[in-house]
């Protein structure tokens, strides 16, 4: 999956936990909220400029085509915004915290 994301220019995906992996790779996304716990992630990544969020009730071929067109025009800024969401040091930060260290950004 990591290689597939690394080789991609755009992801169309649910707004779940994989969102953070895509951000670490600077991969812009069109996010479909498929569960209530994904709504906040999708909305905030959309507000940050890293993704475009759509709800499952809205999705159809025309809307998806429109959103892909939007991403094509903003791909560089969305990629930059996506890469700026995370530090890419997630596992090191978790280990540091578990070993008693304070959180460092």
From TrEMBL:
Gene3D superfamilies in the cross-refs: Glycogen Phosphorylase B
Single GO MF annotation: hexosyltransferase activity
Limits of the Glycosyl transferase family 28 C-terminal domain: 1-81
InterPro entries attached to this UniProt entry: Glyco_trans_28_C
Name of protein: Glycosyl transferase family 28 C-terminal domain-containing protein
Species assigned in the record: Marinobacterium nitratireducens
């Amino acid at each position: 999956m990591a290689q597939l994301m690394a080789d991609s220019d755009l992801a169309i995906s649910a707004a779940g936990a994989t969102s953070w992996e895509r951000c670490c790779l600077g991969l812009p996304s069109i996010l479909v909220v498929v569960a209530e716990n994904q709504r906040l992630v999708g909305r905030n990544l959309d507000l940050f400029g890293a993704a475009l969020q759509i709800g499952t009730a809205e999705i159809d071929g025309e809307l998806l085509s429109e959103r892909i067109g939007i991403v094509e025009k903003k791909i560089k800024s969305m990629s930059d915004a996506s890469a700026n969401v995370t530090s890419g040091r997630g596992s090191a930060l978790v280990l540091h915290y578990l070993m008693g260290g304070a959180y460092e950004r």
